Amino acid sequence: MCITVMKREIIDLLCQKEDYFISGEEMAEQLNMTRANVWKYIKELRNSGFEIESATKKGYILKSVGMQLNEDTIYYCFKKQDFVKNILFFSSIDSTNDFLKYNREEFPDHTLVVSTLQTKGRGRRTREFLSEEGGLYFSFMMRNTMNMQEVSFITSLAAVAVNRALLSLGIDTEIKWPNDIFLHDKKLCGILTEMVTDMEGYNKIIIGIGINISNGFPKELKEIAISLSEAGYQINEITFLLKLFSEFGILYKKFEQGDREEALRVLREKSYLMGKEICFLKDAVEQKGTVVGLEESGNLVVRLSNQNDIALNSGEVTILKK
């Protein structure tokens, strides 16, 4: 059994006892390991930020847990919520979306993969997504029972969840349709939603999110990208993730019941594009217009120069400079 699993089982035992000591002998017996190994894993958990008190003839008791981001603390912190069913943490990975895509048979629905560095991060249309150390990159997988129009709205739900999680931490952002979060007129966060099929024929939705926490940018991106630290904000990554998936879980449950009202309200109120003149491609033809609304489906409504309105259900838009 791998070290990660053993440490998680020790965390589970300590949590079960809560305010009571559990002896090393009892832990060793329940986990089928030596007391020396129990001590080794206790020591590793302490190094991860767990305050575990030990007493002769009593054993161990968990007093508190720090909030630094690592595989042990993130597992502990997500134990008490019910939307994320499984969580994996990597200090570095090629792509959190690709990891879930190519290993989807091995993990249950509602698995969350988190990393602080991606070596092959991707954005829409397979573009490179700069994912350097200092950012937070994560992907969430769930079973899809929706049609394509409904799937496209999942990105909007994720954007609203990010916006509300940040707002709860005192950071007011805007949502740039269809998949970006903006702060001070610069990109703070990107969202990539993909759909894949498993061996049993079920569709899976993988939602990938990357947010700039304290990372820097190359010269060519400094004018269009921003990090929270650059804007003067500091957040705890685990707190942010907990708030985000709490919000997403609530929004998704309402969405399954046919209720988009709250999500649409936020999308409209926090729209970065509303009232702006944009350039976009429609049927391979470049057009210009002014954003005037958002349909119930999540489609962007654009008013052309001839005063006709058209709806965009996907694609990229560019804001025209005045």
Automatic annotation (TrEMBL):
Keywords of this entry: ATP-binding, Biotin, DNA-binding, Ligase, Nucleotide-binding, Repressor, Transcription, Transcription regulation
Pfam families xref list: BPL_LplA_LipB, HTH_11
SUPFAM superfamilies registered for this protein in UniProt: Class II aaRS and biotin synthetases (SSF55681), Winged helix' DNA-binding domain (SSF46785)
GO BP annotations listed: protein lipoylation; regulation of DNA-templated transcription
Binding sites annotated in the UniProt record for biotin: 95-97, 118, 122-124, 187
DNA-binding region: 24-43
Source superkingdom: Bacteria
EC number: 6.3.4.15
Keyword Nucleotide-binding assigned: yes
Domain BPL/LPL catalytic span(s) in chain numbering: 82-256
Record's GO cellular component terms: cytoplasm
GO molecular function: ATP binding; biotin--[biotin carboxyl-carrier protein] ligase activity; DNA binding; transferase activity
Reactions it catalyzes: biotin + L-lysyl-[protein] + ATP = N(6)-biotinyl-L-lysyl-[protein] + AMP + diphosphate + H(+)
The protein's enzyme class: ligase
PANTHER family: BIOTIN PROTEIN LIGASE, BIOTIN--PROTEIN LIGASE
Function comment: Acts both as a biotin--[acetyl-CoA-carboxylase] ligase and a repressor.
Protein family membership: Belongs to the biotin--protein ligase family.
HAMAP family from the UniProt entry: Bifunct_BirA
Full protein name: Bifunctional ligase/repressor BirA
The gene coding this protein: birA
